[in-house]
Fold these 3 entries.
Entry 1:
Amino acid sequence: MKVLELARRRKTVRKFLSEKPPFEDILKAIDAAKEAPSGMNAQPWHFVIVDDPWIKERIREVCEIGERKFYEKVSRKLGEWLKEKGFSPEKPFLSEAPYLILVFGYTKAPYWLHSTWIAVGYLLLALEELGLGTVTYTPPNPRAVEKLLNAPKEYKLQVILPVGYPADPKPKYERKKLEEVVSFNGF
C-alpha cells in the first residue's frame, strides 16, 4: 500500500479483538520503524514489547494513578472535551491489547526527541499496513513506567502503543483541510 493511503486510513484504536496477532508482525513493524532518519544517525530509540498479562496490568495500574491525578487538575475546557469524548482515567486498552510497544528515547543522543518521534511515525504506518491498530498513549507519569520496567536513567519513555486487531467502530477524527495547514514563503 502507498504511504498516502496508509496515512489517510490510519485511525486511533482503543478497542481490540482478543485474537493475538503474530509476533512476527510486531517485529516487522519495528523493523520498519528502525529505518527512520535520526540526528547524526544516532538511532536513539529503543522498543520494549510487552505481552505478559501481569506486566501489562502493572503498567495500566501505574498509568491510571497518574491519570487520576491529571484529571483532578485538568482545565475546565479540556475537562469538558474529555468528558464529551467519553475519556476517563481508566485505560483498559493497556491491559486488553494483545501487545504493548513502549518506545523509549536515548537522551544522550543528539536530537533524540525528534528522531524518536519520527520512528514512532514510521511504526504507526507499518502497523496500519499490517492491519493492526493502536493509539499513541502518552502517560502523564512516564517515570513510574520507566521504573517498573527498569529502564536505564538515560532512556525516557515517549509513548505506549497498545497493539492488536482493531475492534473500535469509532470513525477517524476529521482532519483539517490542506489549505488550513499550508502556507507559502512564510506563515
Entry 2:
Amino acid sequence: MTETLTRPAATPPWGGLVDVVPVVPVVVLHDVEHAVPVAEALLAGGVPVIELTLRTPAALACVERIAAEVPDILLGVGTVVTPANARDAASAGAQFLVSPGTTDALAAAMQQTGLPHLPGAATVSEVLRLLELGYTECKLFPAEQSGGAAFLKSLGAPVPQARFCPTGGITAASAPAYLALDNVGCVGGSWLTPADAVVARDWSRITDLAAETTYLRG
C-alpha cells in the first residue's frame, strides 16, 4: 500500500503533546507482567504519561495490557520507525506515537492513524522540513549527541515556531537546562524507570523518581 503524505490541518489533532508533563518517561519493558505495575507506579508519582518503546518483543503486548488495565495514563509508543510500527501501535491501544526520525512514508503512516504524534528530527534541515509539513512540535533525537541544550537554544531565534521534546542521553541532572529553554516543552527520560528497579519490582522507587520530576517545569 502506498503511503500518502499530506500537510496537516491548520490546527492538527496532534498538537500539545510537549506540554503534558515536564518529563515523559521513556520505558523499555521485557516482561508483560511489569507493564501495569510500572504504569501504576508512574501515576502514583504524579506522572500520568508513559512512552513504551518498541525495542523488545514484549512491547506491543505491554501496550495492550496498559491500555486495558490502566486507563488513567496517557499511553504513548516510541521507537516508531516504520509504517507498520505506527499501525501496530495504534491497533494495540496507543494514544500517541513518537518517532526518532521522520521519512515521508513514516509521517504519512502516523498521520493516517489519526493519533497525536511527535516526529523526530536531529538537524536544522529536518526541523525545517517538519515545519513545512505543518508540524510545530517534534522530538529532538539523540538530544545530547546532536548538540544538547546549547543547540536548541541556538535554534530559538531563527526557528521560534518549533517546540521540542528532546530525548536521548538526558539525565535528572541535565533536564533542567533543557526545560529552562522557551522552545522546550518537555524532555524524554529513561531514568524514571531504571532497569534494575523494574527487574527487582521496586515500584516505590519508580514512584519516587517520578515524583521528583513533577516540579521541574515551573
Entry 3:
Amino acid sequence: MTQDEINEVLNRPLSQEMLARDITRLAYVAKDGTPRSIPIGFHWNGSTIVLCTPTNAPKLHALRQNPTVALTIDTEVHPPKILLIRGQVELDTVDGIPDEYMEMSGTYTMTPEQRAEWEVGVRALYESMVRVVVTPTWAKMIDFETTLPSPVEELMRKQAERQRA
C-alpha cells in the first residue's frame, strides 16, 4: 500500500472519528512467539499513532525483537465501524510523562478535580515512560455500508460478475 493510499484511508471523516477514540487493540508477537492483542490508550498526531507504556512493560522486549504490529480501533454498535492499521514501531524512552499520554486520556469523563488528582497520581508513579510510535504501513476502514471486509467484497464482486454473465 502506498503512503498516498494510507493517507486517503486515514484522512476520511470516519477514520478521523475513529482516530479520536480512546482505546485501540495492539496486536504483536510476544517474546515466546505467541500472539498478543491488548487494549491500550493511544494518541493520533496526524501521521503516527503514539502509545505510551511503563519502561518495564513485557511488550517492549517483544517489540524490540519484532517491531511489526497491527491496531484495531472499533465501535460497540451495529453495524460496527472498524479501522484496521498495520505498522512498524519505534521505541522512545522519555523522562517523565510524554505529552501524548496526558492527551490520550483527555476524552474520559472526569471533573476538573478528578483530572487534577489523576495527573498528580500519574506524575508520581512514572519517572519515565516509553513512547511506542506506530508508523502506518497499511490501513483499511470498514463501515459495512461503503466498505466491507476484503473476503466479503471479493464474494460480492464474483456474485456481480456471475449475474452479468
